[in-house]
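Researcher: Let's run the pair from yesterday's discussion. Sequence first, then tokens, for each.
Model: Starting with the first of the pair.
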Amino acid sequence: MTAPNTVPASPAPRVNPLQRLWLRELGMERLWLRPAPQPVAVPAPQVVVSKTDSPVVEPAGAAAAPVRDVAAPPPAAAQPQVQTPVARAAGPGPGLRNGPPPKPAPKAAVEEAAPAVIPVAEAVKNANLDELREQVLACTACGLCGGRRHAVFGHGGQPTRWLVVGEAPGEQEDRQGQPFVGRSGQLLDAMLSAVGMSRERDVFIANVIKCRPPGNRNPKPEEIAACSPYLMRQIALLKPERILVLGRFAAQTLLGTDATIGSLRGRVHQMKTDEGREIPVIVSYHPAYLLRSPAEKARAWQDLKLAARLV
């Protein structure tokens, strides 16, 4: 590097009276007659190679820029957003590319696909009664499994003459894992005994829903859809002579109707199974309702006698 040149100080300009007058009119008298600046060091011109490889000479007196290697990349803050012809000729820069996008990297060979969820109806179609029980006890097909103590598969005698279908487990059923326990279960046993039936000998008792809904609310449609294949498979395996349905919700679900229980009871309905069998269905009141409304026990007794007369 050469030593900077020193520019000698110039003498103060001399003006005649007429020039002074003109300078005063133009407002430049003080600026023009200002004392000359002290000598300053002027750096020697530097040669900077631009991206087009053409040498550019910076004028003397311009602000001195730091000297850097022309082969070094510019600082990060000065990186261009668009490639110049020189950059394209040299190849793509950081974050820039030419040609088609790269193909995605193949997945690792060890990565396994997530196991497919088997619908309940598909899972139970070949199950026997013991296998079906195990599937019910381990079922997680809907959200009710998260709040249950026990799933209630059902209980009763085999071969099955009557299948009694209730709505859903209550608090006591959830605690014990058995259908129709407590006061409503005692009333049901007395009703069946009055027509010569026993749950230990020839009656199997089950529910439409196998887990207790919170607060004993009615099950939601998605819960019914998830759980009803279990009941349909129970019917196919048990092959009951007749079905006694207890409660409005159970009757509407099993018969696929929204009719009131008052319009459904007192007559015989027919349920057709997937195997083509037709099973007579009798609708009556739920024992828990009879405990709250004893006057309806007479109608429930008529329903039981109607079921018992079926051949």
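Model: Moving on to the second of the pair.
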Amino acid sequence: MTEPSAPRLPLSPQALYRLQAFLSPAFPIGAFTYSHGLEQVIEQGGVASAAELGVWLREILRFGAGRSDAILLKETYRAALAGERATVDELRDLGLALQPSRERHLESSAQGSAFFRAVCNSWMPEAGTEAASLFHEFAGEENTSWPYPVVLGLAAAAHGLPVDAALHCFLHAFAANLISVAVRVVPLGQSDGQKVLAGLEPVIFEIAEEAEAAGLDDLGTSTFLADIASMAHETQYSRLFRS
């Protein structure tokens, strides 16, 4: 079942600035410490070249957490704009429950909770909209765990950022972070990493557009090797990353 689409807002200079800040590698959520199981895959020889990395990431984006998280982001955005507190609560629980392993749960919840704290401390949205009021309401709670795409959708709505741009930037940041993992661990050259990112552009556009039109009934993943890799990573002897 397709949910109502979130309204399209213009990408103003202010909105672009905030999206660049929120999805920057410098935003303090520790994204560089997570590999989404990719470190285990590289260790086992499943990804040893730029071409293999591109294939792996396309599958993760199309059939794994990329698409699923993008749908969660959009659904949270839509609910926050409408001031639907109960729906956002349900999406928060759903986003955590969907994680296939302990480390993937940590990856999403630690980044999401860190993102929420950073926004509360430095980028608190101005009151005046239902989404901003909802964000302030959540900010008054303590020890709340947030899945990353859900809290990003909430913040995007509270700041009046366009959902289509938020989806593109989120998927770009997700892919770029995993490419950075491969650049360090395979290792790949920086130029090869950028070639992989350039090759993912049409895939990211496709998934963002699909997620914007999708609903919760469309949630689901089929990236079993990635899920198993994230489980195996928990006991990997030598490692650089937390997932």
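Researcher: Give me one sentence on the second I can quote.
Model: The chain has one domain: 34-231.
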